[in-house]
Amino acid sequence: MVQLWYINSGSEDQHLEHHLTPPQFADLDQINKETGVSYWKIDPNSEDGVATLAKLKSDRGYNYEDISEISKDTLPNYEQRVKAIFTEHIHTEEEIRYVLDGSGYFDIRDASDRWVRIKVTPGDLLVLPAGIYHRFTLDTNNYIKTKRLFVCEPVWLAHNRPAEGMDARKCYVEKQNKGFTE
């Protein structure tokens, strides 16, 4: 099962876990209710996993995908790109990542604006709603390979915080105030 915890705001290496002292773990169901972040564990090597992913893609309208690898060996301008994705930002569309190999951390803001770190490993599929403040970093393994899923061709553009005036952020806050009931 996925691991989530509240993190400190320390300035040490972003690739570390950054647990509070003592550690304070977060509950996935509560985080889902507060943030709208969705999670699935899908085994890519089983028939059930393949069927689950296909159904999820169909149900949510994901009709475009690509593969992304982040490592010093595979990503041009690695240092700049890693710095950019670790800068707090939003997107106008959902961010969907299915981890195929490696590991890393998605940091999201809870309803009280505290950072929650989500460790992702192979088989984890995470959906961040449009308008949620978040960031991503590799862990100390410095490698992740993900399948990125999209509705139509991607228009992947990050809007750094503050982005309160953007429609995607306003819509997100409205949904958050209602408790993400659909």
Topology order in helix (H) and strand (E) letters: EHEHEHEEEEEEEEH
Lateral arrangement of strands in the main beta sheet: 2-8-5-10-3
Strand element count = 11
- Class from secondary-structure proportions: alpha+beta
Percent of residues in beta strands = 25-35%
User: What is the averaged pLDDT score?
Assistant: 95
In this structure, how is the largest beta sheet organized? Answer: 5 strands, antiparallel
CATH class group of the domain at 38-102 and 120-171 = Mainly Beta
> Which fold name fills CATH's third level, the topology of the domain at 38-102 and 120-171?
Jelly Rolls
Task: Say which CATH homologous superfamily of the domain at 38-102 and 120-171 is assigned.
Answer: Jelly Rolls
Gap between N and C termini, in Å?
Answer: 25 Å
Counting copies of identical and different chains, the oligomeric state is: single chain
Q: Summarize the amount of helix as a percent range.
A: 10-25%
> What's the alpha carbon Rg, rounded to whole Å?
16 Å
Binding site for Ni(2+): 89, 91, 95, 134
Enzyme class: oxidoreductase
Membrane topology: Peripheral membrane protein
Keywords: Amino-acid biosynthesis, Cytoplasm, Dioxygenase, Iron, Metal-binding, Methionine biosynthesis, Nickel, Nucleus, Oxidoreductase
3D structure, described in words:
The chain is an alpha+beta fold and about 180 residues long. It has a domain of about 120 residues: Jelly Rolls. Helices cover about 25% and strands about 30% of the residues. It has 4 helices and 11 strands. The strands form 3 sheets. The protein has a 5-stranded antiparallel beta sheet with strand order 2-8-5-10-3, with helices on one face. A 4-stranded antiparallel beta sheet has the order 1-7-6-9, with no helix packed on it. The protein has a two-stranded antiparallel ribbon with strand order 4-11. The model has no long low-confidence stretch (mean pLDDT about 95). Keywords: Amino-acid biosynthesis, Cytoplasm, Dioxygenase, Iron, Metal-binding, Methionine biosynthesis, Nickel, Nucleus, Oxidoreductase. It is a peripheral membrane protein.
